[in-house]
Amino acid sequence: MPAQWVRLEAVVFNFTTLDKQVNGALRLRLLVPDWLANQSIVSIPYFDENWRPTSFYPKIQYNRNGGMHTLCLLDIKVKEPDFEAMKRGKIVYLPPRFMSVNESSEQLIEAEEVRGRGAYDPDRTLCVGLARLGQSDQCIIAGTLNELRRQDFGSPLHCMVICGEVHDMELEALRPYLLKDSKYEIDAEGTLFQREVAGAGEGEGGDNM
Fold first, then answer.
1. Which of 67, 78, 80, 209 could form an SS bridge with 164, CB 3.0 to 4.6 Å?
2. DSSP summary character for residue 45
C-alpha cells in the first residue's frame, strides 16, 4: 500500500492508541517519516490586518496533485510582545493564542479565494479536524472546510489534515468521525461519495477530492 494512503489512518488511529505519556514531537515523527515531512506538513499562521500570507497554499496543491494528504500545524502565539506598550517603554506580553480548526478553516477558505487555483474545494474536499489528541477528551471531526469551521472542537491544541487520495482503510478509520450531514459520506461498501445539492440524487465523488 502506498505510504500516503496510510498516513491519514495513522493520524486518526495511532494518536488514539499511543501511550498518553508519549510527547507530541515523538508522535509527529511516528506519523510522518523524514522523507515525507518536507511535503506532507504545512504551518498555518494567524492572519492579521496587514499580513495575510498564503505561502502554505502551493505545498497543499502539490500534495493533493500527487494524491498526498497534508498535515496542517496551526499557529501558536505565546509571549508575543505588545508593541503599543513597548512604545511607552513598558514590556508587556499579549495573552497566548492557539489557532483553532475553525480559524484555520476560515483562513484556508480565504486562501483558496485569493489564489483561486483549485488546490482544494471548501465545499467538497474531505478534511479532518483534530483537537487534544491522545487525551481523554480528544475531538476528531471529518468533513469539508465549510462544515468544520462551524463545529465545536473545544480547547487547544488543534491540528488539521487536508486529504488527498483516500484509501478504503482510511475511510473505515474515518467512519465514526464523519459529520452526519456532511456533503461527504461513507457508504456501506466503504467508498466515499459526495451528496448532491439538496433535492438532487446522490453520486459518487471519490475522484473529486
1. 67
2. P
CB distance 64 to 208 below 8 Å: no
Strands 70-74 and 41-44: parallel
Contact 163, 140 (CB under 8 A): no
Chain segment 118-176, per-residue pLDDT in tens: 999 999 899 999 999 888 899 999 999 999 999 999 999 999 999 888 877 877 888 88
Q: pTM higher than 0.70 for the full model?
A: yes
Q: First vs last Cα of the chain: how many Å apart?
A: 19
Instruction: Find all residues with CB under 8 Å of 72, minimum gap 6, and list them.
Output: 41, 42, 43, 44, 56, 104, 108, 159, 160, 161, 162
**Cell for 85?**
506598550
Question: Are 129 and 153 contacting, i.e. CB atoms less than 8 angstroms apart?
Answer: yes
Spatial CB neighbours of 208, under 8 Å, sequence gap ≥ 6: 121, 124, 194
| Residue 109: strand, helix, or coil | helix
In the chain, the domains with their CATH numbers are 3-179 (3.30.950.10)
C-alpha grid cell, residue 147: 462544515
CA dist., res. 116 & res. 127, Å (int) = 19
